[in-house]
């Protein structure tokens, strides 16, 4: 699959993208080296490494601009696919916090962290979002917030009995925890703009315009959009939504070869900035 990187910088002139200092230029090779080492970390599980071809972790984290000195919150890490990379990347100079919903949804990542204290002992833990209870990350305390394939869950009211949409509240909470100039990096299953928006409530796909609206309403500025995780083979129209595709295979063995050939979903990759006051 051909991949194209399209970066749209909206902050110009005196903004953070206006100039690149000599110190920043010097740091770039080190960042690349440390990120490559994290992607190749021996603590990563083989089943997760096999999915790198779909998820492009080095290119994605480079696009978001995550530095090894950053304090990063990974929201809803699931089983810890990106945690396996972020933990070694941030271990020595930065800090990783995994933020999970309170209750049973925390169990998977909690077991992973507890099973390997040598690899994950420095990883902090928090709850997210306040709409579901728990304690939030402190306001203005982090450099970057990353969330992978989760905004659709907030839109669909995942984990609420009444399927209440709490996406707007989630974005406001993310905005509060970031420092001025901090980054929000989002990857999610992409619904084409021409398709029915009602599918956002059931299919697991979301429109770029919807996520941009949610972020803008919370106060963010769009800093870039990338096609790193695009998949033109994805037709976006399956009876069981995005979960029809790998790795879930919701239809089990029905048309499995067809879905395997499509691969993982077509995904948007968006970078937002909390403006500096």
What's the N-to-C terminus distance? 41 Å
Q: Give the % helix.
A: 25-40%
Q: Could you tell me the strand content as a percent range?
A: 15-25%
Average pLDDT for all residues: 90
Q: Name the helix and strand elements from N-terminus to C-terminus, one letter apiece.
A: HHHHEHEHHEEHHEHEHE
Which regions have little confidence, pLDDT < 50, spanning 5+ residues?
1-29
DSSP helical segment count: 11
- Report the structural category: alpha/beta
Write down the Rg: 18 Å
In the sheet with the most strands, the strands line up as 3-2-1-4-5-7-6
Number of strands: 7
The major pleated sheet works out as: 7 strands, mixed
Shape: globular
Describe the structure using short key phrases.
277 residues, alpha/beta, 11 helices, 7 strands, disordered N terminus
Structural write-up:
The chain contains eleven helices and seven strands. It is α/β, with parallel strands linked by helices and 277 residues long. It has a seven-stranded mixed beta sheet with strand order 3-2-1-4-5-7-6. Helix 5 links the parallel strand 1 and strand 2. The longest helix has 18 residues.
Compile the SSE list and pairings.
Layout: H1 22-39, H2 46-49, H3 52-55, H4 57-64, E1 71-75, H5 83-90, E2 95-100, H6 107-115, H7 117-120, E3 124-127, E4 142-148, H8 151-155, H9 167-177, E5 178-189, H10 208-218, E6 221-226, H11 256-262, E7 267-273
Parallel strand pairs: 1-2, 1-4, 2-3, 4-5
Antiparallel strand pairs: 5-7, 6-7
Helix pairs in contact: 1-4, 1-5, 9-10
């Amino acid at each position: 699959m051909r991949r194209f990187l399209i970066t749209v910088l909206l902050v110009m002139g005196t903004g953070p993208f206006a100039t690149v200092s000599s110190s920043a230029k010097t740091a770039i090779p080190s960042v690349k080296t440390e990120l490559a080492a994290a992607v190749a970390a021996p603590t990563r599980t083989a089943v997760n490494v096999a999915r790198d071809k779909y998820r492009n972790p080095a290119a994605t984290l480079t696009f978001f601009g995550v530095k090894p000195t950053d304090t990063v919150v990974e929201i809803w890490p699931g089983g810890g696919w990106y945690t396996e990379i972020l933990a070694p990347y941030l271990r020595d100079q930065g800090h990783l916090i995994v933020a999970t919903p309170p209750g049973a949804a925390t169990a998977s990542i909690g077991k992973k962290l507890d099973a390997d204290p040598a690899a994950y002992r420095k990883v902090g833990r928090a709850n997210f979002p306040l709409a579901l209870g728990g304690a939030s990350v402190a306001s203005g305390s982090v450099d970057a917030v990353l969330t992978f394939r989760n905004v659709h869950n907030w839109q669909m009211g995942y984990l609420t009995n009444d399927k209440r949409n709490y996406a707007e509240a989630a974005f406001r909470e993310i905005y509060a925890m970031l420092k001025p100039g901090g980054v929000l990096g989002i990857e999610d299953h992409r619904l084409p703009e021409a398709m029915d928006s009602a599918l956002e409530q059931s299919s697991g796909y979301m429109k770029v315009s919807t996520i941009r609206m949610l972020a803008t309403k919370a106060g963010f500025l769009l800093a870039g959009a990338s096609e790193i995780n695009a998949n033109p083979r994805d037709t976006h129209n399956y009876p069981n939504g995005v979960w029809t595709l790998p790795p879930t295979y919701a239809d089990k063995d029905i048309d499995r070869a067809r879905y395997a050939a499509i691969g993982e979903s077509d995904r948007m990759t968006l970078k937002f900035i909390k403006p500096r006051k």
